[in-house]
Write a structure and sequence with these properties.
By secondary structure, the chain is an alpha/beta fold. It has 5 helices and 5 strands; from the N terminus they run βαβαβαβαβα.
Length: 128
């Protein structure tokens, strides 16, 4: 299974995602803020990052920019976790940074599992 880093300032959202993912056999690491996300990624070597877009101080976009700016993590898959999944500007950001999907808050377990499996399958495909 995969190693997944969940970055969200909301403890309930982190717990929900971690529970769903751990139940599927994934190793889950949690980070409560964007500022610690890159260091956490270096420590855990995540295959996938699920990041909340709206966090105090360092938001999800800044996490994504730092992640994409670090060659060690250029193949790390990213899913956005947001209360505004239909936002056009957010979709443009997702496209610009190669984001693998957008999860709506609150997250339905089947949606989380489907998005995670799709993102991880993309990682195993060298043409993606």
């Amino acid at each position: 299974m995969a190693t997944i880093l969940v970055v969200d300032d909301d403890a309930v959202s982190r717990l929900l995602l971690a529970t769903i993912l751990e139940h599927r056999g994934h190793a889950v690491f949690e980070c409560a803020d964007g500022g610690g996300a890159i260091a956490a990624l270096d420590d855990c070597g995540a295959d996938l990052v699920i990041v909340d877009m709206q966090m105090p101080r360092v938001d999800g976009l800044e996490v994504i920019k730092r992640l994409r700016g670090d060659r060690r993590h250029d193949r790390t898959a990213v899913l956005l976790h947001t209360a505004t999944p239909e936002d056009k500007a957010l979709r443009n950001v997702a496209e610009a940074y190669g984001i693998r999907g957008i999860l709506a808050k609150p997250s339905e377990p089947d949606a989380v599992i489907g998005a995670v499996e799709a993102a991880l399958n993309d990682l195993s495909d060298p043409s993606v």
